[in-house]
Design brief:
Layout: H1 3-19, H2 26-41, H3 53-69, H4 74-90, H5 97-113, H6 119-130, H7 141-145, H8 150-156, H9 162-175, H10 187-203, H11 206-209, H12 212-230, H13 235-239, H14 241-250, H15 264-270, H16 304-309, H17 311-317, H18 327-330, H19 348-356, H20 423-450, H21 454-458, H22 476-482, H23 486-500, H24 504-507, H25 528-549, H26 553-569, H27 579-587, H28 596-611, H29 617-623, H30 627-632, H31 636-642, H32 665-675, H33 681-698, H34 704-717, H35 723-746, H36 755-767, H37 769-776, H38 778-792, H39 797-802, H40 805-818, H41 824-837, H42 841-844, H43 847-861, H44 866-888, H45 892-897, H46 900-913, H47 918-934, H48 937-940, H49 945-961, H50 965-979, H51 992-1005, H52 1009-1016, H53 1031-1047, H54 1060-1076, H55 1080-1085, H56 1087-1092, H57 1094-1110, H58 1124-1141, H59 1147-1155, H60 1158-1163, H61 1166-1171, H62 1173-1177
Helix pairs in contact: 1-2, 1-3, 2-3, 2-4, 3-4, 3-5, 4-6, 5-6, 6-9, 9-12, 10-12, 12-20, 20-23, 22-23, 23-26, 25-26, 25-27, 26-28, 28-33, 31-32, 32-33, 33-35, 34-35, 35-36, 35-38, 37-38, 38-41, 40-41, 41-43, 41-44, 43-44, 43-46, 44-47, 46-47, 46-49, 47-49, 47-50, 49-50, 49-51, 50-52, ...
């Protein structure tokens, strides 16, 4: 029958079934329905048969009604279930709510009353109906997953056949699956589903299923269903994390040599007191065996065709099969090949070729939707290489960053029909099903890792990662090193990558300590830092071992990515030297490989080496070329990479692109690789990015001639047609410029970079392609122009001042012109560059330039793109800093020439930006504080300024009380700048109380101690009593400081504990500052407050004075130095105020005299204190 005939038959059958009436006799009705269903099921649903989904939905609803009215005939129900699967799974008909309700209700009733032989087809139809429709089936949740639900009952029934049980579990999986619109079944039904699946995983055993193969089929179904639940991150998952991880680990190694899962009968007497894995005690799963030290490649694991083609060799290699096949004994009797016996250079190439077809694919695959919908729920895509690795949830496909495909996606490739009924065939079938179990366990582990807080999960690390080489426990490295399939090994690597991602916060505590005694008995315990150190060392050892042993190129690339993440998160500065050397020594020969993907992965890992905890002396030693390399004039790695003779390594390179042999060997390799255009573009691009990372961290290792060669190389790369390549070249120039200026400004003993070298570098850049790229603007290449502007912004104040006048004018003119560019990236970069230039001493006092830059920033602040406004706000804050700097330097000519109207525009623009996006606010409030500090009395007398000042203060108060912590921190600092302007009517203006009340709320309630510190700081700035307002406001602020001082005893967040002492010191300093200005009226009003807090205030103040006297060096609270001597003078001023200037008869004054009497106790005597006053005043 042709394609068009099927469509016509469908339409005819749909028309006839719609005309059937329920009033006809049951026998004739059933007969008619039977005939039509046979016709419909005979169509070829592999092609498009249904043109109109609405007609399909009508047929489904009509059949439900007709079959129910006909007495629910089992034969009709079975045929109708086949039609449901054909329409939903093969024709991909989407159900509406009405049809879904009809089908679900019909199928649930069928399950309750049907005969056993029809149950399998009904469950398949129910699985297709529930697929991705869980959010629409909540009204059936209790009937399906409730205590007496049909699915729960079938799963609990121990007498069920394996096929029925697997399809029941699949129904549970489908109803728990997240739909395409992101919705899913309510958590009140997800939780019992999770508990049901976890119970099945814990209690299933071969005895209840008949054979081990059937048992592992059930386990596979449970794991696939559990994956759908785990990706939703249900609340119960967190509470049952220990039992869940124990159950997963129990099946994590099934099928590996020497391993046998612990089944319920054994678990009862082995683990009766250990229901699951516990955090920090992660060896709860009892195992009688230890991992074997070889990876098994059994000849019986080959495909059937390969077995038939190699029958003779198989007979000589395979042992006599045991009478009973079991997981524990299966692979231990097969021939094995140890890693130590493998010749990795020669003989392993054939083995690699045989297993290459089994390697995982790193590209997403579009998997056809099957009748039971297994494959779509378990497909995988490539793991992202960006930091943001960063996603914490999985998509509906099961694992959006797995790095390997699910076992279920392979089900069609290894069906049961491919295996014979012989014992050898059953062994091969068992190996296949156990490999799928291992893969599905790894998928579930990934889902758990992605949906569990890393701090909670870290407590379970030792269950999967050993902390020493003597550990005999089964771990994730057992999978990575011993799994016979490349997909299994890649899956273990993917799990380890997810575990290591973001682990720096925990591993930073690792430390190798020199033991005072070599005797183990002299060390009564193992410290936490030493245990972490053992984990880090073992991670390096096992990954490097896996890198050597791995024969699959794709899996090797995954291992390299995992090693990169490990390097990025390892605290090498706290560990003994040698780890980094081992990594580099292992990676260096891999640069000679022909595979560009592997070369890229190796370079990426080496880039992490030069980026982490820089600079490391060990890296400095690693990168130096050996004397043999220098003497022979070549690098071994370069020779291997280019397959040339030693004398021809640089024959094609121009003299200005050749790097001296004394330079770091990897710099030489990268330069040679980049210059050879026949090399892969991805390798050349990665080499260019590595150079940027190396220069950023280790520029002091590069001689001036090497830096010049790198500049020439980057400039030549700018001519490339590939945009990412040219952007990386520009980034390299930017990193060279930034690193050289930073090294020059650091004033270290190295003196690696001189001012003349930097100046010559910039003169060549400004005469070369940099200015050309900027002048072309976005019309040629907007990304390149933006990158060039970013590069120009790193010239530095010292070097810019050394340029000739015409070159400075050229740079300024280009930036001002690009500030109006149409491209958002170019516009944002130019706005940021102007913000850098406006701080240069040679430009900040230039009124014309500052005015032009201000107008450009005002225009950028009106841009609709958030990125442009964000960069413009940062530049605006820098411009405000330059105004304050000019004012502090006493530059009256600048202040007189700077337009008040422009200042008013800047102030109003900052006020508007203070209510913009959070990324804009943080710099807008900083600008507001500086502008309010800069305003003079002459400006306040002009129209619009008084109103603008009031609006600005209110904007600051709003941001002090709410928003991101960075915004609140900057807003508090800005309030301090307001208090530094003596011309503002602080104390008399109506907004005075708003400022102090806003600061009080932060001091009292904010959980972030750094923000509290910045809120307390402005209270120690006002130079006169009038700033604090009336007596009531003054006393309120004073009482708030005392309450906040006592409140520091309660630290709710452990991360804030390290800031507690600093907060106490700042609170005491502000109290001393306010006491210096206290009046007798203030003292009288504070009597009750001081009486209640006398003891606490006295103790805190005594501790504060003792702390100040122990400080020998100054520390900075803000940009202005607030040294210990200055703070001691505030304490002295408070002492003098309460002892000499206030009336001693008042109770409050007596209390303060007693509190500040600690001053004389701490310094010896009052006379000694007074003798130091002239010295301090000087």
């Amino acid at each position: 029958m042709s394609y068009e005939d099927d469509k016509l038959c469908w339409k005819d059958a749909a028309r006839r079934i719609s005309k059937l009436q329920e009033s006809s006799s049951d026998r004739s009705l059933n007969s008619n329905v039977n005939v039509i269903l046979d016709e419909l099921n005979s169509l070829d649903y592999a092609t498009s048969v249904v043109d109109n989904e609405e007609s399909a939905l009508q047929v489904l609803c009509k059949c439900c009604t007709l079959i129910q009215s006909g007495g629910n005939d089992d034969f009709l129900s079975t045929k109708f279930c086949q039609l449901i699967v054909n329409l939903l799974a093969k024709q991909k008909v989407d159900l509406n709510q009405e049809t879904l309700n009809h089908l679900t209700s019909f199928l649930i009733n069928c399950i309750k009353i049907c005969k056993k032989w029809t149950l399998l087809n009904i469950l398949r139809a129910l699985g297709s109906t529930l697929y991705e429709n869980g959010s629409l089936c909540e009204q059936f949740g209790d009937r399906l997953l409730g205590k007496d639900g049909v699915l729960v009952g079938l799963c609990r029934d121990k007498s069920q056949e394996t096929d029925v049980l697997c399809n029941t579990i699949q129904c549970v999986a489908n109803i728990c699956m997240r739909s395409s619109n992101g919705l899913h079944l309510d958590d009140k039904f997800i939780t019992p589903a999770f508990n049901l699946l976890l119970d099945l995983l814990q209690t299933s055993n071969p005895n209840s299923c008949g054979t081990e193969i059937e048992h592992f089929r059930v386990i596979n179904a449970v794991l696939r269903a559990l994956l759908n639940v785990l990706v939703l991150g249900c609340a119960n998952q967190r509470y049952d994390l220990g039992p869940l991880l124990a159950a997963l680990k129990n099946y994590m190694f099934c099928g590996l040599p020497g391993y046998k899962p612990v089944y319920p009968e054994e678990r009862n007497h082995q683990l009766e007191d250990q229901p699951g894995i516990e955090p920090d005690d992660l060896s709860s799963v009892h195992l009688d065996t230890i991992p074997q030290k070889d990876r098994t490649y059994s000849a019986l694991s080959k495909k059937k065709k390969r077995r038939s083609n190699n029958k003779k060799s198989k007979q000589t290699a395979s042992p006599v099969a045991p009478k009973q096949t079991s997981v524990g004994s299966l692979l231990t009797e097969a021939p094995t090949q140890t890693f130590s016996a493998m010749n990795l250079n020669n003989s392993s190439s054939k083995e690699a070729g045989r297993h290459e077809d089994q390697c995982i694919s790193l590209r997403p695959r579009n998997i056809r939707r099957h009748a039971t919908h297994y494959s779509k729920s378990n497909s995988f895509s490539q793991k992202s290489d960006s930091p943001a690795l960063n996603t914490n949830t999985l998509d509906r496909s099961g694992a959006e960053s797995s790095g390997y495909h699910s076992a279920s996606s392979l089900s069609n490739a290894s069906s049961d029909s491919e295996y014979s009924d012989s014992e050898a065939g059953q062994m091969a079938r068992l190996r296949s099903v156990t490999s799928k179990v291992r893969l599905n366990v790894l998928l579930c582990l990934q889902a758990v890792i992605k949906n569990t807080d890393k701090k909670v999960l870290f407590g379970y690390w030792s269950s999967f990662i050993p902390d020493n080489t003597m550990s005999a426990s089964w771990s994730i490295f057992t999978t990575i090193l011993k799994d016979p399939t490349p997909k299994g090994r890649a899956g273990g690597v993917a799990v380890l990558m997810d575990l290591l991602d973001g682990s720096r916060q925990f591993l930073v505590a690792a430390e190798d300590r020199e033991q005072h005694s070599s005797s183990p008995s002299a060390r009564p315990y193992t410290s936490f830092s030493a245990k972490l150190s053992g984990i880090v060392h073992e991670l390096h050892r096992c990954l490097l071992q896996a890198l050597v042993a791995e024969t699959s190129a794709t899996t090797k690339a995954q291992i390299l990515k995992c090693l990169s993440i490990l390097v990025l998160n390892s605290p090498y500065n706290r560990l003994k030297e040698g780890l980094v050397s081992k990594v580099v020594r292992q990676l260096r020969p891999l640069l000679a490989l022909k595979d560009p993907n592997l070369q890229t992965a190796v370079l990426s890992c080496l880039k992490m080496v030069v980026c982490v905890h820089t600079p490391l002396q060990e890296v400095v030693e690693i990168m130096r070329p050996t004397s043999e390399e220098i003497n022979f004039g070549n690098r071994n790695v370069s020779q291997n990479n280019n397959n040339t003779t030693p004398d021809s390594a640089s024959v094609d390179l121009k003299p200005d692109l050749q790097v001296p042999l004394e330079s770091p060997w990897l710099i030489n390799w990268c330069v040679n690789t980049i210059n050879r255009r026949e090399n892969s573009l991805v390798v050349r691009l990665e080499a260019l990015q590595f150079l940027g990372s190396f220069v950023k961290s280790y520029v002091f290792l590069l001689s001036p001639i090497v830096v010049e060669r790198l500049r020439s190389l980057a400039c030549s790369c700018l001519k490339d047609v590939d945009v990412p390549f040219t952007l990386s070249a520009m980034k390299l120039l930017e990193e060279i410029a930034r690193a050289m200026y930073a090294e020059f400004s650091s004033r270290t003993d190295r003196n690696a970079v001189s001012k003349e070298q930097i100046l010559q570098f910039w003169l060549k850049l400004l005469d070369g392609p940099l200015i050309t790229v900027i002048q072309e603007g976005s019309s040629v290449s907007a990304p390149s122009c933006s990158a060039a502007v970013d590069c120009l912004s790193n010239i530095g104040a010292v070097i810019f001042n050394e340029l000739a006048l015409h070159k400075r004018i050229l740079c300024i003119t280009l930036l001002l012109g690009l500030s109006n560019d149409e491209d958002k990236n170019v516009k944002a970069s130019s706005a940021r560059a102007l913000g850098v230039f406006v701080l240069y001493p040679c430009l900040r006092d230039d009124v014309l330039f500052v005015a032009d830059a201000a107008n450009a920033m005002l225009a950028a602040m009106a841009d609709p793109k958030i990125m442009v406004r964000m960069k413009a706000a940062w530049s605006l804050a820098n411009l405000s800093d330059s105004l304050v700097t000019n004012m502090s330097c006493g530059d009256t000519s600048f202040m007189g020439d700077f337009s008040d109207m422009l200042l008013l525009k800047l102030l109003n623009t900052s006020i508007a930006a203070a209510d913009d996006n959070e990324k804009v606010k943080s710099n807008a409030v900083r600008a507001l504080g500086n502008f309010l500090r800069y305003i003079r009395m002459s400006s306040l007398n002009k129209p619009g300024f008084v109103e603008a000042v009031e609006n600005a203060v209110q904007a600051l108060v709003r941001n002090v009380g709410s928003g991101l912590m960075k915004v609140r921190w900057n807003a508090c600092y800005a309030v301090g700048n307001v208090f530094r302007n003596p011309f503002l009517p602080i104390g008399t203006a109506p907004w005075t109380a708003q400022i102090f009340i806003g600061l009080e709320n932060v001091i009292r309630d904010c959980k972030n101690f750094k923000v509290r510190i910045n809120a307390v700081l402005p209270l120690s700035i006002p130079p006169e009593r009038r700033y604090y307002g009336d007596v009531a406001l003054y006393c309120r602020v004073f009482a708030t400081l005392i309450d906040a001082l006592k409140g520091t005893e309660k630290v709710t967040e452990f991360s804030e504990f390290k800031y507690r002492d600093h907060l106490r010191q700042q609170l005491c300093n502000s109290l001393c500052h306010m006491t210096q200005m206290m009046t007798e009226e203030d003292a009288s009003s504070l009597s009750s407050t001081l009486k209640e807090n006398y003891d606490a205030l006295k103790d805190y103040m005594a501790d504060y004075v003792r702390y100040l006297q122990t400080q020998e060096s100054s520390f900075e609270d803000q940009k202005e130095d607030n040294t210990a001597i200055e703070k001691l003078s505030a304490v002295q001023g408070a002492y003098r105020r309460v002892h000499e200037e206030l009336e001693a008869s008042k109770p409050a004054v007596k209390i303060l005299q007693d509190v500040f009497g600690e001053w004389t106790k701490a310094t010896g005597t009052e006379d000694e204190t007074r003798t130091t006053e002239p010295v301090k005043s000087e």
